[in-house]
């Protein structure tokens, strides 16, 4: 019943339905929340808001299981979205870690599967590979597709450097169309940086700021700002611009034609190239005990060497962190976010985040009026998948 009502609300475009969607979104973002607060947030008359909240309650879209603190009279009723027996699936396909996550409507992880890192696959091959893995996750939890509100998929990490005639948007569209033919629920394919920013913001920072910047340092470097609950740019149709910020004009040449772009200085690929170059120049490294030659070096081998305190790999990591910190500091000066969150595979590695934070602090020390707070991502490895599920909810509410 809950899923049926959600989908009916999703498809309706009447004036009343739009108001119900708006209230549902506010409850999802701010719950548990009382009617008085919703009235203020929705800019509605108290009677109108109360009537629409009652309707959401009758439709079982929200619950009233909690009571707030009393200010002298009766305790106010607090509303939350109903999550009973309806699920989301979020998928991140990556060259480093690929993950499928089962969530409830509040983005709480219920189960997950780690799958082998993905090389580039055509949309049809990717569909063939994903379907049995999604089916297995649902089967393990005794859940049918009839209980899944939707599936979100992030794939740009495995297609970004393989495209020739087609754009990333076309790849998204092709995979989306194929999955929708095979899966009896809503499917959206999009940008991992969008997904990760949305999940971090909604889960941890929505109540703290309206000016939020999320950055990710992975196989590519990306950034996404959310200002007043809106994405600042649309990164689903083109290469993310953040990684093409020029930091050192004497640096390596980027695929965009410029020199010293962020992607060439602090991405996983750039660290790997820097390590291999130094090894080929004759420097020593514990990596040589993990692989037979430099051509066998992988990201995971470098991570293992970092855990073994290998000085060469740690120096390459710390150099990347310095450039990443410079780029974030410059973006803070321009965008003026109140909170910045740094995500991606590199953030938990060794001293990477500490150096990023120190570099930002040093750069901004001349601007004492800027009070931006910088944090590491809460879940470095699952946040993209969680955000993929959150984007399904965005589709419902918008």
TrEMBL record:
TM stretches of this protein: none
Parts forming coiled coils: none
One Pfam family in the UniProt entry: ROK
Cited Gene3D superfamilies: 3.30.420.40, Winged helix-like DNA-binding domain superfamily/Winged helix DNA-binding domain
InterPro entries hit by this protein: ATPase_NBD (IPR043129), ROK (IPR000600), WH-like_DNA-bd_sf (IPR036388), WH_DNA-bd_sf (IPR036390)
Family of the protein in this entry: Belongs to the ROK (NagC/XylR) family.
Name of the protein in its database record: ROK family protein
Species in which this protein is naturally found: Proteus myxofaciens ATCC 19692
